[in-house]
Amino acid sequence: MSEQDPHPDEAAVERYARAFLRPSLFERLRSLKGATLGGWTAVWVRAIGSAGVLLEARKGEARAVLKMPHLPYDRPATFGAAEIRARREALLREAEMLRRFSDSPLPSLIELVTGENPLLAERSAALRGGEVYLAMEPIAGRAIDLEVQARLRHPEFNQVGEWLGRWIEDVLSFLKHLRRTPPGHYYTDFKPSQVLVAAEGQIRIVDAGGIARAGLEMRAPVTRAYAPGTGDLEPVSLQALGRTLYAALLNKVLHERSGIDEPLLATVCPADLAHWISKAAQGAWSTIDEAIARLPL
Amino acid sequence: MNDARRSCPDDGTPIEPGYRFCPRCGREAAVPAPVDVPAEPFRIAATWERARYPEGVDSMVRAVLALESTPDLPIERLRTESHLVLVLDVSGSMNVPEKYPLLREALDLLMSHLEEGLYLTVVLFSTESQILCQGVAAPEVRRRRSALLARMDESPIRFQETHLRGGLDLAVDAVREFRAKRKDVVPRLYVLTDGQLTDPERAYAARPELERLGAEVHSFGFGRDFAFESMRRIMGTSPGGTVKHIRDTQDVLERFQRVAQVTASIVATEVVLQMEFAEGVIPGDVFSHRPAQRLWPASEFRPPRAPRFEIGVLEAERRYAWAFEARLPEDPRPGFRLGKIRLAYRQGGRDHELAEWLEVPVAAGAEEGAADPAVASVFTSLEDLRDDRIETQIAAYEARIEICRAERRDPEYLRALEEVVSRLRAGIAKEAIDESLLRAADADPSTCTIDHWGE
């Protein structure tokens, strides 16, 4: 397969763009294939997130996931230099998070590079040439909801409590590590697409942009269907985790007002875990320590 | 270029420039005596959303362009001949005292006041369709109006189901046949319907034909149970494209008189609006605001920096408005010219052009000025057009259905999506769909930011 051929997974990204964004945006992003971005060659469009576009990229033998700012490139009049710079700053912040939490479920940062952004052809050379690219470790795996559903359908994975409990423990341990790191960090943007089950079976969290910093920033990143509440970062983070697990176990697509049905949840996982997840999803755990203390082992 | 166009000496059909003889009759083409056209028959002016834009900032600028004919325009001498095609609903729901008798009276009034230079076609539709009259000149319409109304009253197709497609097909054929004889006459089509269509899918399929027809298409919703969304979908991007609601059926009398009046006020044809953007400017979307609302997305501009918009015709004493947006270069200075606007049109047998520079009120070191509420409200009213194309909405929901099926996702979510698509396909506007159903179908996976209280 040449670098210009469509990658099989790219069809899913194209479908996602049609479903939630605009086909014209995907077409613009696809035009990057073969382009050199900060020394990396773009191979295919891997995902379109809310803040960033992920490209599979190569440099010699090395492979990386290259993250660049997500802007409405198909509607160039709608954003200006200020928006471009703000998105770049967000990526720089994300790189800082990846460096700070290098030994965690987040992907490893390979390098932070700058270079030309061919999608800003109408802008000045200075603006066009200062694009920020994060080259990150590629993670082979599947979104937690798809993985859980596959496991629930498969007799080999009938010990739901075992693997689910281990995943929750791992995530809580990561959340604790985040919180301990000054000034206090919180992962507030849990949703099924952010949580991957890697090929080796461990939990990975793919987007460091979902981390909020206490005290330094007044706004926190969330997806409203998973974090419908407001308030302190810690319960918001735990509620988003709870709703993510709830959605994954019941194969639900949640919206902001989706309710939580604990008896239904108990039909697919042990009752004590169902209770813990329901409580989390309803925002009942106010601290990570409380959530850890109440987790059935 | 102000060339008077030659025409066939036999039937007046215009002949392509450069030909001396009519290719059909072989006789030497007639050169029309040019009509005396005022030096400035139209005025065009831009109103910027903000009184000033800061120097050295790539601001998004938005403006409304208004075009009006000058008050002393000699309409009698300049107006073109027109072919008015009415497609009228005579289905069962019209068979009530506040509908059919009023429609009949309105048609009577329209026919009795039809001005010279107008030709009339009337198509009736119910389960079947029927031509009441086709391409009849105004004097003859006036003379035969009682007979035509009697024929309508006795029509065997009346008061059955609402199948619009057949009526549209007859109307399109009538426009084409008339145009084959008289290319110089401007066709204009009006559809009046009072209820939900029995054949929405077949009627939607007529859209490409209407868009290719090169005639303005307008529609009236008569009474309360009007399929607004269906009509909007059927007309698509046809020139004209207004959908007006005659909620109080008494108003149909006035509306039909107005139709006859405006169709007799066409003073310019082959109208093309062109915008030529300066170097460094990033063109944004352009909208038609008046008389009909329509979006021309920047992504479809051809060529990208000098898009042309086919406007069709201009009527005297009507205000036309277009809205546009653009991103300034990164370092604009006072007196910056965004570009040039050109309006090309044909009037009095000659081609004309009106051109204006668009100078942006960039001010040295200034903060952005307050928004002009009138301009801002125009953009607010147009905003929905960007994502409001019914086909775009349906395509997005269908892509969600594909994802849902491919990934074996939530059956409840799938059902909600399928239900929304089926309602949109039936011509129901998104705003009229049950909120809880939409909430389920519109589950948003994107990240936003919220205020937090810290720790």
Detailed description of the structure:
The complex is a heterodimer of chains A (297) and B (455). Chain A folds into two domains: 10-136, Phosphorylase Kinase, domain 1; 142-294, Transferase(Phosphotransferase) domain 1 (Transferase(Phosphotransferase), domain 1), CATH 1.10.510.10. The mean pLDDT of chain A is 93. Helices cover 38% and strands 20% of the residues of chain A. Chain A is built from ten helices and twelve strands. By secondary structure, chain A is α+β, with helices and mostly antiparallel strands. With 455 residues, chain B is an alpha/beta fold. Chain B folds into three domains: 1-34, no CATH class; 41-74 and 267-455, Immunoglobulin-like; 80-264, Rossmann fold (3-Layer(aba) Sandwich), CATH 3.40.50. Chain B is built from twelve helices and 18 strands. Chain B has helices spanning 75-78, 100-112, 138-153, 164-181, 200-204, 207-213, 228-235, 252-263, 373-387, 390-406, 411-425, 435-441; strands at residues 42-48, 53-54, 60-69, 82-89, 118-125, 129-137, 186-193, 216-222, 240-246, 266-277, 282-290, 294-296, 308-315, 320-327, 337-347, 350-359, 362-363, 448-451. Chain B has a six-stranded mixed beta sheet, with helices on both faces. Chain B has a five-stranded antiparallel beta sheet with strand order 1-3-14-11-12, with helices on one face. In chain B, 40% of the residues are buried. The model of chain B has no long low-confidence stretch (mean pLDDT 89). The chains are: A alpha+beta (297), B alpha/beta (455). At the A-B interface, helix 1, strand 12 and helix 7 of A face strand 11, strand 14, helix 10 and strand 18 of B.
